[in-house]
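Q: Hi! First time doing this. I have a protein sequence and I read that you can turn it into a structure. Is that right? Here it is:
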Amino acid sequence: MDQKYQNIIFMWTVLILVADRNVSSASNLTTTINALFQKLQNMQTTKYNPAVPPFVWTKFPGVYESDVKMYFHGAPVDSTLRYVFGVFDNNMFATAWVTTCLLEAYKYGKAPKPTAQMLDLSINFIMDHRNKNLNYTNSIMAFWPQLYNEKAKGYVSTPVNLLELFNSTYLIDWEPVYKELDKLGLQHVTETIKRLLANR
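A: Yes, that's right. Below is the predicted 3D structure, encoded as structure tokens:
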């Protein structure tokens, strides 16, 4: 069958399925939207949380959850490592993107209105990412929180938790970890860790 006709049949099928929805479907959609809104609301950090790497990560008020993942690949167990281990990332982009999506979903869709607290937390977090090295109002934004660096004599955009993770690696005796990983057949993970540690 010609591709053009396949596309037309597909479109008609979609139209029939959409037209056949009943009140129950609309109700299910509303329930789903509200559940997703609640999930996002719960993902926003409301107060400062200090780090205890690698178990608890620093979280700044207003940030929406975003994780840095290592790209372990290969056997199925490697994908498990990707899903299980992540480093919470306090970046401005994720919070700006989620906040924009929430506002647009409210304005153009049927999503709940973001609360004043959600918006205040987000905006304050985002505004804290303005370039602190300029002593005037500016629109130059940093991706990560800015920490004062005495050596540089200025503020530096810093992936706080990644830095904490790398600093905590000096406290670990890696040989027993390597042996356990090797016993599990994860020699390539051992090599990845060694390579990362060599570049810290």
